[in-house]
Amino acid sequence: MWWRRHPTLWVTLGLVFIAFVIISSHRRDPGSLSLFERLVYAAARPFQKGLADALSGIREIWLGYVALVDVRKENKLLAERLKELEKELAYCREIKSANERLAALLKFQNSISFPTVASQVIGEDSSGWFRTLILDKGFRDGIEKGMPVVAREGLVGHVIEVADRSSKVLMIIDRNSAVDVLLQQSRTKAVLEGVGRPDVCELKYVPRSETVEPGETVITSGLGGIYPKGLLVGKVEKVWKDGYGLFQKVEVVPQVDFRRLEEVLVIVSTEEVKQRDDGKKKPGISEGKKGQR
Amino acid sequence: MRHVGFFLLGLSLLIVQTTAFRVLGLSEQRLQLWLTLVVFYGFRMAPVASLIHSFLLGYASDVFSGGTHGIGALSALLVVLALQWTKRGLILKSPVALGLLAGPASILWGISCLGLGLLIGGSSWVEDFGLWPMFFQALCLEVISPPLMYLFQLIESLGRVTRETTSRGL
After folding, report:
1. Interface contact A128-B113, CB threshold 8 A
2. B10–A contact, CB cutoff 8 A
């Protein structure tokens, strides 16, 4: 057979073709998942969850253990006892810390008017170039594409992909993210965009004529159809104007510490958000994912 | 079985990369651990098998990434083709020598992803990302990959022994 003479060439061409099919279908509908993608999510999820839980516990116990090394030198017997107690303490601290976090999350869950699903962060972006999180809840738990995700400190992002038991969240600090926001004191509307760094975002389209002060609170405006109004986003850190241009530059520090996120809430009642924002969508700027790379 | 085993090994490296590094506070220095397996495939497997394996692993890495799905897979294909080309002029058997190829493979994969992202996505995020983290990640991978190569070799030889024992038994 003619194709058997150069199998590598034909396989390469076939795989390149498949890659382009994947790229084009993902660019056309970024939220849809192929069978392979679903399988990868399904296979990875229990291991990701188990590993995340196990390593969190080990880290806490290890941090407690390290503190005991000097004490053991002074008194071995006492140190042994202390080690046990320290392990228990680390374990209790971990439980206490988890309890506090979950209690705060529950309090926050009760304080917001939208029904939510609590979820654990079990992974993050594999490439390091994007700012996405993987949650342990998916389609079966009521999660859908486009749902807003919050932590008790403030806005985290929105769901961009959903598998059976896990989902992917695009954080507001990703360069692809765009959120319609409102400056609480000056009532100035703007679009918050990520710059790819975990500690800072940029406000776009703030007219030069508006007075914006550092320290001003940034909340979601409710426009754009994804995020409900009034979710805390962050605080204005820096404001400056270049010598030219229609807009001023505003840097915002997000309220959420994205490096330490462990539990989040997914706002599942998107219907309510849609109804509230129906017909109010800002022309020309779409909230959520700006575009694929 | 061997192929499924190696794919699962790659998937487990991806899980370590996405989950363990985050919990251990190393998420900013995230290494593309699965690329070491691509290098291993490139030198140890038949060309067609290594192409398919690398493509699937690249695709699996796309699943956990926020970028366009397929770009990582295409880049992995490019890496393994480069390795196939390198293989013609080099005979590398030692895990350390194989491990040394992981760094350049990581750089090639990174550049390919950035380039394809720019071509397909049309965004200017290459400038924002900068090339320094990519080189740093490659350097770290260079250090960590020799022990990983030893591990892959060990797994491969264990698999071979098991297969031989089973076939003799039959």
Report:
1. no
2. no
Question: pLDDT per residue over A99-152, tens digit each?
Answer: 887 777 777 777 677 788 889 899 888 777 788 999 999 989 989 998 999 988
Pairwise CA distance, residues A12 & A18, whole Å: 10
**Dihedral angle over CA of B112, B116, B122, B124, nearest 10:** -10
- How far apart (Å, rounded) are the C-alpha atoms in residues A252 and A193? 10
Token couple for A179: 């959120």
Residues A106, A248: contact at Cβ < 8 Å? no
Question: Is the reported ipTM for this assembly greater than 0.90?
Answer: no
CATH class of A116-291: mainly beta
DSSP string, A135-151: ES--GGGT--TT-EEE-
SS3 A179: strand
Give yes or no for B83 touching A (CB within 8 A).
no
Length of chain B: 170
Identify all chain B residues contacting A56, using CB atoms and an 8 Å cutoff: 23
Residue B18, chain A, CB below 8 Å: the answer is yes
Distance from CA of B153 to the nearest CA of A (A): 24
Residues present in chain A in total: 293
State whether B129 and A129 contact (CB < 8 Å). Answer: yes
- A28-67 pLDDT, tens digit per residue, is 887 778 888 888 888 888 888 888 888 877 777 776 666 5
Q: B52 vs chain A: nearest CA distance in angstroms?
A: 8
